């Protein structure tokens, strides 16, 4: 049987390209094994240590603050929507990878950067070399339980979380799909696997097939709204 293990940006790519969105009914979802949230980080020597302090700093220095992105268009659009909503004049810098973005952030070439958990920037934050200002996603970030969530805690209408899941083609026998679903659930109950994932900065999260599909559908519904919100401000 054919099976794939994509992250949700694979579904959102067509929306960014202004093309027809994928029909999730053409797929059979087995389940999610991990959620990777995007986080905003800054160097510890900066005058801002919290999200609110960072916004105040941007307002006091319009047009002078640069925010990098570790190659996540979704996260950039979330931050752009924040800038529009809050009236922040800020510059965005897109990198080809989280590695390049992490290097420039640590090197002081940008003022802040959004990155995924598990990146070099996130590992630096674990060591106390970088500050995490806010969680752009909906989940929990390992080792930072009190990190404010932009959507759930601060009331911003948009967010970005990236679930990693196993998906089969439409028409795959239910017995096969259910077998995969159960295998994912059982694998995530392994303490050694959980420990290895958490050490790497990844959150082991199980969602069954129906929950995974619903999560992806919600993400695909809110993305066009966010893009339209941002476009109106251009």
UniProtKB/TrEMBL annotation:
It comes from the Bacteria. Coiled coil: none annotated. InterPro entries: BUG, Bug_dom1. Signal peptide: none annotated. Belongs to the UPF0065 (bug) family. This is Tripartite tricarboxylate transporter substrate binding protein.
